[in-house]
Design brief:
Structural class: alpha+beta
Strand order of the largest sheet: 1-2-5-3-4
Radius of gyration: 13 Å
Shape: globular
Strand content: 25-35%
């Protein structure tokens, strides 16, 4: 699993992006569980994720409405299959409105660029 931490900060909210290969929902859940073994990530407000697993699109907003769908859309555009991407947010106390979607997209772009998968 690759983890890129402290990549975005806005009005107190902080973001990280992580991911790794997964061919099944169970493997995706195992990667999420591995990430949450870190107390820091376990205490995050949201760990939103998406993947295209054996041709099946799966996503989980984890309370950040629309985040999983956005991650999934970006993975589809990049034609990235059998790989889960997780965007983590620690809420900073101020609502970000639509900017939160920009931050999710920026996090996924960084992941794709840094891993060479995009």
């Amino acid at each position: 699993m690759r983890v890129f931490d402290k990549i975005i900060s806005d009005r107190g909210s902080r973001y990280a992006v992580s991911g790794g290969p997964a061919a099944t929902r169970a493997e995706a859940q195992a990667l999420l569980a591995e990430l949450k073994r870190s107390k820091r990530f376990a205490k995050a407000t949201h760990n939103s994720w998406a993947a295209i697993l054996s041709g099946e699109a799966v996503k989980d907003d984890d309370g950040e409405a629309g985040a999983g769908a956005l991650i999934l859309q970006m993975l589809e555009r990049a034609e990235l299959r059998d790989h889960v991407v997780i965007v983590t947010r620690w809420f900073g106390g101020k609502q970000l409105g639509g900017d939160r979607f920009r931050h999710v997209a920026d996090a996924v772009r960084l992941y794709l660029r840094e891993t060479g998968l995009g």
